[in-house]
Write a structure and sequence with these properties.
The protein has helices at about 40-45, 50, 70-85, 100-110, 135-145, 235-240, 260-270, 295, 305-320, 325-334, and strands at about 10-15, 55-60, 90-95, 115-120, 155-160, 160-165, 170, 180, 190, 195, 220-225, 245-250, 275-280, 300. Helices cover about 25% and strands about 20% of the residues. The termini are far apart. Helix 4 (about 100-110) packs parallel to helix 9. It folds into 2 domains: about 10-210, Rossmann fold (3-Layer(aba) Sandwich), CATH 3.40.50.1170; about 220-334, Rossmann fold. The longest helix has 15 residues, at about 70-85. The radius of gyration is 20 Å and the shape is globular. Strands 2-1-3-4-5-6-9-10 form an 8-stranded mixed beta sheet, sandwiched between helices. By secondary structure, it is of the alpha/beta class. It binds asparagine (ASN). Asparagine binds next to loops.
Length: about 325
């Protein structure tokens, strides 16, 4: 029977390497992701029973490079449903690491609760020597059951490091120490069962956002177009032709745009496509009216959001408005 004092934590599983399996104990890359079901993940860490009343639910079973808007909506709705009851104190979401930061930021904008929501993954499959999944899962449950995590927005926990969904990104293809918010930093650490926070998000999240996905069945199409030397307008035109309602331009440097791409941006804007200027650099603010006259063109800058997170916010923004000024306001707020 559940112990009254322990927090009730729901584990929602989506797949990823944390549920992956290799062919040998030394295989740490090239294994198969998303094979172990959620109950087996939980049973594999019997220590969980000492810190929480845990139960699992399988939302999807995919490698996270295959994440979709549909799964995001299903996941967000389920998180909101569960957190609205008194039976659930916090949620842990097991997820592949490739798009974990995108799912985390999406939930950060649409979860309507102050209760902890923690995304966790692994870089090594459970079959590997020194697998990181079991300890990451344990620490994620510690965090989701902690008072310290309440009201901090959606959190990411791998490698004993706590990060904010907004700022964290995957920085190494295969190392355990991959989730970082370069320059802005971690929110805190976990040692044993002790959660220590040193900072908190300053941007609006969860209960303070204007986004509501509960009645949505789909999200507007937003594509990302990359900036590089010798660029042409071909990729941006292709996104418009495919029906994108918004395009994030992953610009060079401070969001600069190649001279050959600018006419394609103007044509897209005339068709009502919303253009957000982000940067491929990975750190720093994209300056409004800096490398590009945003006031003249009615383009939007991504602030410090990387292209894949700017895409998440732009999709949600487009569920409310197509007004570039309103959308710019959202990019300053979230
Ligand atoms: N480490 C991982 O989880 C990588 C895997 N490709 C995924 O994102 O599902």
């Amino acid at each position: 029977a559940p112990t009254a004092k322990l927090p009730n934590i729901k584990i929602l599983a989506t797949g990823g390497t944390i549920a992956g399996a290799g062919v040998s104990s030394t295989q740490t890359v090239g294994y198969k992701a998303a094979v172990t079901p959620v109950d087996a993940l939980i049973n594999n860490v019997p220590e969980l029973k000492k810190i929480a009343n845990v139960s699992g639910e399988q939302i999807s079973q995919i490698a996270s490079e295959n994440m979709t808007n549909e799964i995001w909506l299903k996941l967000a709705k389920r998180v909101n449903e569960l957190l609205s009851t008194d039976d659930v104190d916090g949620i842990v979401i097991t997820h592949g690491t490739d798009t974990l930061e995108e799912t985390a930021y999406f939930l950060n904008l649409v979860v309507k609760s102050r209760k902890p929501v923690v995304l966790v993954g692994a870089m090594r499959p459970a079959t590997s020597m020194s697998a990181d999944g079991p300890m990451n899962l344990y620490r994620a449950v510690v965090l989701a059951g902690s008072k310290e995590a309440i009201g901090k927005g959606v959190l990411v926990m791998l490698n004993d490091q706590i990060s904010s969904a907004r700022d964290v990104t995957k920085t190494n293809t295969s190392n355990l120490d991959t989730f970082r918010a370069p320059e802005l930093g971690f929110l805190g650490y976990i040692q044993n069962e002790t959660v220590s926070f040193y900072r908190q998000p300053t941007r609006k999240h969860t209960v303070d956002t204007e986004f509501d996905v509960m009645n949505l069945t789909e999200l507007p199409r937003v594509d990302i177009v990359y900036g590089y030397a010798n660029n042409t307008r071909v990729m941006l035109d292709a996104a418009v032709a495919a029906g994108a309602k918004g395009i994030v331009h992953a610009g060079t440097g401070n969001g600069s745009i190649n001279v050959n791409v600018k006419p394609a941006i103007e044509d897209a804007l005339k068709k009502g496509v919303v253009i957000v200027r982000s940067s491929r650099v990975g750190n720093g603010i994209v300056t409004r009216n800096g490398e590009f006259d945003d006031d003249k063109y009615n383009t939007v800058v991504s602030d410090t959001l990387n292209p894949q997170k700017a895409r998440v916010l732009l999709m949600l923004a487009l569920t409310k408005t197509t007004d570039p000024q309103e959308i710019q306001r959202m990019f300053w707020e979230y």
